[in-house]
């Protein structure tokens, strides 16, 4: 996997890939249509953020590249890559408990807050994507 030069794209398996942590200046792409929804991505070396229909979906600090983003009613899964460890925040169901797996290893159960946010840290090395799976417990 590598950075997404076009900032966001649809993959052949009907998932989304987005983010370019190698950009020195903020770049964004708005009104990207996928699955009947409109997406907006903002990305550069310091942050990567994805919104769907004006609502928060994903944010990482520092910036990352995400591939194979697949959102379901029961969770979310994707692969993430970046030059250094990242703090990732996701929007899920409010006050729900999720089983979190990072790099094939269980990180245990985590509960979202009142706003539905779930934050996790992911250890990253450039050019080595890490799989993240979050399923409702």
Write the layout of secondary structure elements.
Blueprint: E1 8-10, E2 16-18, E3 27-34, E4 37-44, E5 47-52, E6 55-61, E7 65-72, E8 75-81, E9 86-91, E10 97-102, E11 105-111, E12 117-122, E13 130-136
Antiparallel strand pairs: 1-2, 2-7, 3-4, 4-5, 5-6, 6-9, 7-8, 8-13, 9-12, 10-11, 10-13
The tally of helices reads 0
How far apart the termini lie comes to 29 Å
Q: What's the average pLDDT?
A: 95
Secondary-structure element pattern, one letter each: EEEEEEEEEEEEE
Organism: Petralouisia muris
Protein name: Endosialidase
Plain-language structure description:
This protein is mainly β. Helix content is 0%, strand content 60%. It contains no helices and 13 strands. The radius of gyration is 14 Å and the shape is globular. It starts with 7 loop residues before the first strand and ends with a strand. The mean pLDDT is 95. This is Endosialidase.
Produce a short descriptive summary.
The protein is mainly β and 137 residues long. It has a single domain, classed as Immunoglobulin-like.
Features:
137 residues; mainly beta; Immunoglobulin-like; 7-stranded antiparallel sheet; 6-stranded antiparallel sheet; 13 strands; globular
